[in-house]
Design goal:
This protein is an alpha/beta fold. The chain contains 8 helices and 7 strands. One of its GO terms (molecular function) is 1-acylglycerol-3-phosphate O-acyltransferase activity.
Length: about 210
């Protein structure tokens, strides 16, 4: 990433496909030797040149690695504190991950504004609309920020259900890696101009898939 970064800023400042390719390799090599990964619905992924808002349930730190294996150059939203971690934080900065200070309304507005700017430039963004990792595996309430971005920019929302990450690497126990299978369910994209309706439809899709897999 360091070697290619000047060229990425010059030639692909917004999507940064090269960095995301490196991140996919990193995530795949990190996860694949230890876990079985099953992916359903790959045909529902928009083309690489189609900007979209991806939304997923959030159970584990492993969720990010799992989503990176899909090879899509979307920008995650992450707590500002994560950027302070050596190597991981540097990689996140080069990939264009969007920082967010929790409980800071100004930071939240800046984050949503940045997401809309990126989408208008052809990039995609990825939200965990629950806002934090689930402690008990249950699906929490969704915040509407991601869906407001989609409604205002007119891009599709792609719901993704992650099953099993919370059992393999429980929230708050990042030093633990249990054996198991992770299932990724990519749902059909949804579009609309009402953030509330998009939010409800996306959450229902994810909740239904979690229910079927439980």
């Amino acid at each position: 990433m360091l070697v290619g970064h000047p060229f990425v800023l010059l030639l692909d400042r917004y999507r940064r496909k090269f960095h995301h390719f490196i991140a996919k390799l990193w995530a795949t090599l990190t996860v694949s030797p230890f876990l079985k990964l099953e992916i359903e619905g790959l045909e529902n992924l928009p083309s690489s040149d189609t900007p979209a808002v991806y939304v997923s349930n959030h159970q584990s730190f492993l969720d990010i690695y799992t989503l990176l294996t899909l090879g899509k150059s979307f920008k995650f939203i992450s707590k500002t504190g994560i950027f302070l971690f050596p190597v991981i934080g540097w990689a996140m900065s080069m990939m264009g991950v969007i920082p967010l200070k929790r409980m800071d309304s100004r930071s939240q507005l800046e984050c949503l504004k940045r997401c809309m700017e990126l989408i208008k430039k052809g990039a995609s963004v990825c939200f965990f609309p629950e806002g934090t990792r689930s402690k008990d595996g249950k699906l929490g309430a969704f915040k509407k920020g991601a869906f407001s971005v989609a409604a205002k920019t007119g891009v599709p929302v792609v719901p993704i259900t992650l099953v099993g990450t919370g059992k393999i690497m429980p929230s708050g126990m990042e030093g633990m890696l249990n054996e198991g299978t992770i299932k990724v369910v990519i749902h059909k994209p949804i579009q609309g101009h009402d953030a509330g309706e998009l939010c409800n439809e996306a959450r229902n899709s994810i909740a239904d898939a979690l229910g079927l897999q439980s």
